[in-house]
Amino acid sequence: MIRVEIERIHGDYGFEAKDSIGHMVSLDTSPETGGDNFGVRPMQMLLLGLGGCSGIDIISILKKQRLKVDGFKAIIDGEREKDVEPSLWRKINIQFFLEGNMDADKAKRACQLSIEKYCSVAETLRRAGAKISWTVAVNNQLIQM
Questions:
Q1: How many helices and strands (H and E) does the chain possess?
Q2: CA distances (Å), 32 to each of 7, 41, 45, 91, in order?
Q3: Fewer beta carbons within 10 angstroms: which end of the chain, N or C?
Q4: pTM value?
Q5: HSE (side-chain half, CA atoms, 13 Å) at 88
Q6: Res. 76: pLDDT tops 80
Q7: Which domains, and CATH codes, for the chain?
Q8: pLDDT digit string (tens) for 21-64?
Q9: Per-residue DSSP letters for 26-42?
Q10: Cβ-based neighbours of 9, under 8 Å, separated by 6 or more
């Protein structure tokens, strides 16, 4: 079992979240719903988790193929359901940017394996109904899907 802690430390909705090792993240809601931009919105944290989970997968897969990843970046855009509570993620698009001396097809396959097979966050979001699409660029060259 994994345990994390959340404690309110700022205003009405400003929380400090701590994992089992002691790493901390600040959380808050939007000013429109009573927050004051103290931290990351919880729903945005899901998208951040998706980027981190897939990034770990992709780099791990490429390293196993003895490919050196000099740079990794992911830009994630999400669209939530409108006018319903709770409002879940409907559409998510991830743009992966990889740098290094690597075969474009291997980079594409590593991204595909992460999103479609290995990333637990992606599968969690998919099971909640989100449609996840993605693209990949290697050394600033978009790879055809």
A1: 3, 7
A2: 22, 12, 18, 23
A3: N
A4: 0.95
A5: 9
A6: yes
A7: 1-40 (no CATH), 42-142 (3.30.300.20)
A8: 999 999 999 999 999 999 999 999 999 999 999 999 999 999 99
A9: EE---GGGT--S-SB-H
A10: 15, 16
